[in-house]
């Protein structure tokens, strides 16, 4: 058994090294000029329920993301805002602050639970208060739930954000609340997603500077 475990570990290490070599050959390693402005990333906590898991998930994710060079994080907790029940022609001051923070961001991470095979109403309401603020920016997802690990919510959010002229990145991070957390697995997923988000964030920032996006 010990020999089999050693062989398995060696195989994993070899596969990881091969993947790193392929990434280096493609130029996919984390890079960027030291004097390049950090990418401004809004991390949106989508649940406002009492007893939610979202705050803990956000704390884990932001601690990992802050280890990556070149990202400036702004944690936007929807529980800190009082969204009106109706969409008003003139939103209250707190909502103006929310949309200003969306507008200042150059990329987004949306942390969402899955409720009844979808994402929470609080998140949809918040999303709809922005429009131009979302345009031509990348979006990544961190989801949590039981069994489906929030993927039903993420797939529906991809449709919503497509309508808002964003680019949703391929990889995502997911947590199964009924199982023990696998930090290695979620860590690898987060690293892949952040790499994609950073690439699109810088590319779209340059593109918006060269030519304003017109929807």
From TrEMBL:
Span of domain NADPH-dependent FMN reductase-like: 40-175
Enzyme Commission number(s) of this protein: 1.-.-.-
Protein name as annotated: NAD(P)H-dependent oxidoreductase
Gene3D superfamilies assigned: 3.40.50.360
InterPro entries according to UniProt: Flavoprotein-like_sf, FMN_Rdtase-like_dom, NAD(P)H-dep_reductase
Enzyme class, first EC level, given as a word: oxidoreductase
GO molecular function: oxidoreductase activity
Source organism of this protein record: Streptomyces iconiensis
SUPFAM superfamilies: Flavoproteins
């Amino acid at each position: 058994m010990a020999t089999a475990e050693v062989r398995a570990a060696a195989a994993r290490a070899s596969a990881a090294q091969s993947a790193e070599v392929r990434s280096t050959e493609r130029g996919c390693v984390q890079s960027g000029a030291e004097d390049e402005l950090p990418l401004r990333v809004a991390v949106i906590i989508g649940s406002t329920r009492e007893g939610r898991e979202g705050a803990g998930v956000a704390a884990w994710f932001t601690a990992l993301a802050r280890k990556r060079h070149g990202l400036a994080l702004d944690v936007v907790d929807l529980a800190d805002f009082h969204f009106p029940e109706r969409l008003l022609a003139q939103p209250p001051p707190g909502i103006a602050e929310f949309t200003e923070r969306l507008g200042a961001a150059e990329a987004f991470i949306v942390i969402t639970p899955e409720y009844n095979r979808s994402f929470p109403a609080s998140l949809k309401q918040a999303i709809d208060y922005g429009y131009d603020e979302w345009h031509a920016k990348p979006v990544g997802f961190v989801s949590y739930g039981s069994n489906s690990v929030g993927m039903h919510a993420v797939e529906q959010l991809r449709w919503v954000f497509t309508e808002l002229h964003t680019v949703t990145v391929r990889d995502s991070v997911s947590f199964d609340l009924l199982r023990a957390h696998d930090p290695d697995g979620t860590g690898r997923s987060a690293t892949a997603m952040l790499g994609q988000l950073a690439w699109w964030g810088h590319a779209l920032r340059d593109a918006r500077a060269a030519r304003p996006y017109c929807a």
